[in-house]
Amino acid sequence: MNHLKAKGIFLLLVTGYSVILQSCGGVPEEMASNESSDKVLAVADVLTLVSEENDITRTLYTKGIVGAGKKQGLKFDEDWQDDEVEAGPLPALFLRGISSDIRKSDVPLGLYLGSDFPINASNKFQGKQAELFAKIKTDQKPQHFYEEDQKLYTSMFADLAVAAPCVNCHNDHKSTTKTDWKLGDVMGATTWQYPSDSLSYKEAIGVINAYRNGTKAIYNAYLEEIAAFKNDSTKPQIGNKWPSKGFYLPTAEVFIDSVRKLASYHSLEKLLLADNKKTTKTKDLASN
Amino acid sequence: MFSKNPLRKRQRIGSIIGITIGIIIYIVLPLKQTEDFLSLGPLNTGHEGLSCNACHTDAKGNLMQQLQSNIAYTFGMRKTKADFGTENVDNKKCLECHDRPNDRHPTHRFLEPRFKEAIANINATECETCHREHNDTRIVLKNAAFCVNCHYDLEVKNDPIDTPHEELIANKQWNTCLQCHDFHGNHIYKVAEKMKDTIPLEKIQEYLKGGVDPFSNKKKHQPLSEEEWLKMKKKYSVK
Fold first, then answer.
1. Which of A213, A244, A284, B126 has its CA 20 to 30 A from that of B184?
2. What pLDDT band is residue A175 in, cutting at 50, 70 and 90?
3. Do B113 and A100 touch (CB under 8 A)?
4. B150 to A122: CB separation less than 8 angstroms, yes or no
5. How far is C-alpha B16 from the geometric centre of its chain's CA atoms?
6. pTM
7. Which candidate from B69, B106, B117 shows the least CB-CB separation from A27?
């Protein structure tokens, strides 16, 4: 009798404990979206979208800041962060700065720049990237693949010589490995990586924001570098004006705002298109 | 009606002793004074004096929630594990104090597919590959000739040093790299142009084991101290 009573109490305790354990709730999972139905955007589409934003940002920086700035006497150097060097980041390093800042965010997006004739040997493509880059050089079409070892969805996009400063700087650089670049050449490729095959709107916006915040961070780092220049006469006036108007540089807000104006319409259209596709797909399924 | 079991007294004494030991452990072990006892080993160079919870920060949720989450994970009811007790110490944690804009070899650089073979030899994507904590040293690698993994085909134009890089590479003198080049690039110093003026290998090896810094005592960026880190954490913590 007593034995049965003890067993009953034990079972009651176990049940009670299980109920408490279940009802108190666990640690929330850190995932932007768990519902597969929310994942309306294919990873290749999102990476294409952000890569197009990157093309706009880099062209604006290369033409509007580096190209026009050089004519006003601004200097740009690969050792721009060295104390004794008073210069700004070259476009490739501007991109690396964006990439570093993205890595500091919680968005698992990877961005890299490489080439078959890089100035810095560590940026030379190898293995699969080198093979795919050979294809990109012939047709300029993006390459999307799944990197098995890293378990990352990867996209490579052609990086074109869009402005005279790209060609001139690379041809004249003391460490260049190729001296006959010309406008329109595929000078390299950007590689983008993301860990899942599809993204929700929230995740896609996270990717775009991470990229834009990266742009802001590296541009601000450049302005901070200027503030530390020893000679005041080498400091351009920072405000609303661009170097094409004189010895000026736009503030980070002005620069980013110009990127936004050029990129946002296209990005929004692409995001909306994914929703349209989803609606059509749902209708098709319903009619079947 | 029922006679008392003679073992009952022993059971009570046993329970009291057990509970007392439990309470003592619960009170004593979290004390600052017992940190050395709990530590896996002496902290690495520069980390002396840090509290355990500077790196081993409390995991999210209470014990019960962590337990529940991990049971749910075991039975496939959630996709990710939850940290139990303290958070995992990873790159992000290191970078909370050591992040700086001028790192010549930041860990994220090596995540790119092109470094796949190099990181199979040395996983440079993780701080702890070289700086594994609780080893009373600066870096844990036995041999600091790791540069070969990426720079094996290095060609230097306008080579500034009297013994050309080409010759050093041909002779596989990869442990000489650090005699001129500081891996993370945070020291302010003038690089020698003659091999005889470079930092002797013994001094480099001593430094890697936690000895005096032979590059320079001037650095471009200083990491946050524990107090500064706490202040930052407080300032930016989500409420």
1. A213
2. confident
3. no
4. yes
5. 42
6. 0.80
7. B69
